[in-house]
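Re: your question about Protein C10

S., sorry for the slow reply, the queue was backed up all week. Below is exactly what I fed in.
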Amino acid sequence: MASLQSVTVDQVRLILTEIIEALESPDYAPKLDEAKEAAGNEMLKMMQIVFPMVVQIEMETIKRHGFINSREGIVQFTQLVREMERADTEVARLHSQVRAHYLPPVSISSTVDTSL
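Result:
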């Protein structure tokens, strides 16, 4: 990729869509499900087991679009997505779908204990 400034919103949408398709593909989905099951609902285990798998899949996808196949490339791509998701709801939606693969669901209690 010549320059991060030349990356369009449509390109980022396409890349995020490809990442989601890869995460949900028969090649990766069973492995991710197994990793998630091993991690349970523990955030630390999720970050140790599942997150690296998701990042590896993201790296494989973004390198096909000209990003560097390294930690630097994934950082650049993630920064680009974070900037674009502020202005584009579709990028934000797709990015949240990717994050849902490595962030455990959070349940928020609607009752507040005020007995303290």
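Residues 43-63 form the longest helix (21 residues). The chain has a mean pLDDT of 88.

Happy to talk it through on Thursday.
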